[in-house]
Amino acid sequence: MKATGIIVEYNPFHNGHLHHATSAKEKSGADVLIAVMSGQFLQRGEPAFADKWARTEMALAAGIDLVIELPYAYATAQASDFAKGGITLLDALGCESFCFGSEQGAIEPFLRSYKLLADRRGQYEQMIHEAVKTGVSYPMALNKAYTELVGETEGFADLKQPNNILGFHYIDAAKKLNSPIQPITIQRIGANFHDPIRSGTAIASATGIRKAFFEDTSIEELSVYMPEASVLALKRFAEETGSFGSWNRFYPLLRYTILRERPDGIRKFAEVTEGIENLIYDAAKTEDTFENFIVRVKSKRFTRTRVQRMLTHIYTGFTWEQLRTFQTPTYLRLLGMSAAGRNYLNRQKKNIGLPLISRAASLDDSMGKLDIHATSMYMLGLGKTAMKKEYTSPPLYFG
Amino acid sequence: MKATGIIVEYNPFHNGHLHHATSAKEKSGADVLIAVMSGQFLQRGEPAFADKWARTEMALAAGIDLVIELPYAYATAQASDFAKGGITLLDALGCESFCFGSEQGAIEPFLRSYKLLADRRGQYEQMIHEAVKTGVSYPMALNKAYTELVGETEGFADLKQPNNILGFHYIDAAKKLNSPIQPITIQRIGANFHDPIRSGTAIASATGIRKAFFEDTSIEELSVYMPEASVLALKRFAEETGSFGSWNRFYPLLRYTILRERPDGIRKFAEVTEGIENLIYDAAKTEDTFENFIVRVKSKRFTRTRVQRMLTHIYTGFTWEQLRTFQTPTYLRLLGMSAAGRNYLNRQKKNIGLPLISRAASLDDSMGKLDIHATSMYMLGLGKTAMKKEYTSPPLYFG
Q1: Domain A3-103+187-192+329-398 has CATH 3.40.50
Q2: CA pair distance B35, B334, nearest whole angstrom
Q3: Subunit contact A256:B257, Cβ cutoff 8 A
Q4: Which positions in this protein are listed as binding ATP (chains A, B) (predicted)?
Q5: pLDDT tens digits for B1-19?
Q6: Closest chain A C-alpha to B226 CA, distance in angstroms
Q7: CA B83 to chain centre
Q8: Virtual CA dihedral for B139, B142, B148, B153, nearest 10 degrees?
């Protein structure tokens, strides 16, 4: 049995994801499709719209065979660590390939860019360093250095596009791991990330879809943009928890914790750097909404995403000290499987490179405990404390 | 001008307090009555029913001449440190006497008991130590040792009574300070501390009165038990903040912070000792109400009051490390004054032993910043962030 892997957030699952999943299976020729999925907090430094169980359900209903949790420490990290976490897990699961959506849609430019940068890494890093010194954000600096290196030459990856950047990091992670896993890419189609839902189209952005849910759009209308199973799973999640995950919803707790920690305390949380703790503290003192708060704190240098990652760690209490203890993912947390997924695990048992964990009670190392902790923090943000699924349920099964 | 001092919480101010204030002035023959009052958190380890501004207003309306804030570090401490903080401030203010309510109502038994224990301190401390080892709470151990020492002898203070105990600590604090301040006591009258309001009586317990406010009792009915100015100040406070301070109200934030800190984090907060952090954490995981939570955590050894003091420090983020930096109160924070109080301060200016602080902006040491921080934490517990009074208002003035 051949497996291909994808690294996803499904926040929430929509027709664009369905297209990606279907194409990944086709293009790779794999029998089994494995998704490594972020848990309760996401790479953009946000609480997930719906919890990992609801999102696993959507994934399984749409034909994913195995859903494995990307540990919190990687799911909420900058692109290179996010990629390292995801690729390490897919490699441990014995995937022959991984498949990412990209604006470019062809793999050669990525490999060419990778080779160019690998050959000239010293020069590249020096250029990034220089650019950062001018006060631009790290992604901007990276981009500037890359553009200067590649020049006007055709045939390289366009690393100004967000999905291309992520894809590039996946390839980089696979090479660093010395993994035999092969990269595949699929052209992304449809809505741009931030487009609102446009009536009549079948693909909408996750942002637009989240907005539609907050506005209580009907199941029929939403079903144009996402599988009906996804709509139903989300509606049920909202019924159970009273709402969806968002910083707006979590802000009272976040604000309290920022004010309680004070600048001296804030500094110790992961990703908080360079004196931004005072700005975070002062903004929390006066701003009554998350949106006003983040607008006060973000800047050219500290992008919204970067600040939100800091906030995520402040919110969950995840420190630099803890972060530094993590070198590589240490387990495979199984959130859900199809019959084919179960079959694959049974057959591959001996080739799987990390312990496969079906129940939280078995997660006894600090990285795993952090995932359980993240669920507890996530549920409290929603005003709930239901941890039943986390502790006592087996992985979801779609037979 | 002669001044006498009282140490109070006014949670909230009622006719029993009015009686105490009037008698203190009469019995001491003082021209000016000074109250050192706890701020936003109280000695029983609870958020105050109404904030310190509303309580200052009640005190001034009832004839108190000066209201000085007892710093958080002392207001939330065990009896001996609470007493030390209060007496130090009254001494610094040049009071000739201080006046406490007691079950016994005469000062001689207190002085006799003080002398006995001073003479036999070594033996007393050894007996307390032995009693603690049997697993009883510290107050119980103290009481046991004291009863054994005093025996059946008449004429000593009955240190089983809560107000007698506090009075004893005041005397002890004054002696340790080598202060010339003289102790006076007044017999407490009326309701026992926990009695509910009984119709037709003019004195009710603070507990009963708080309950009546939660039940939205009418102003007319409440005015039987407390000055009408107090009723109105409280009603206005509730209108402004939407509620009153209580652990029930603050529990969602407390619970989140306990779960976020986890046992390792909880241990660092002031008063948290001897492995209780696991019990606190486990109870927070499952208990949805504060009352169920505290019942799980308190025990014969760790009384409700002691646990609540730990919770107060966890809630505000006050650590052992901070606590250890405080030796003695470093300022007099003026919350309110009458014309006579202002007059007294002007005349006594040169004799006042600590800097007199009228505005929070002038509080630049760590103890003072902690009081401002406590206000911020208190307001967040009520779902508010109004800090205007704390920062920009002068002390209240009742001319």
Answers
A1: yes
A2: 10
A3: yes
A4: 7-20, 101, 163, 188-189
A5: 899 999 999 999 999 999 9
A6: 34
A7: 9
A8: -80
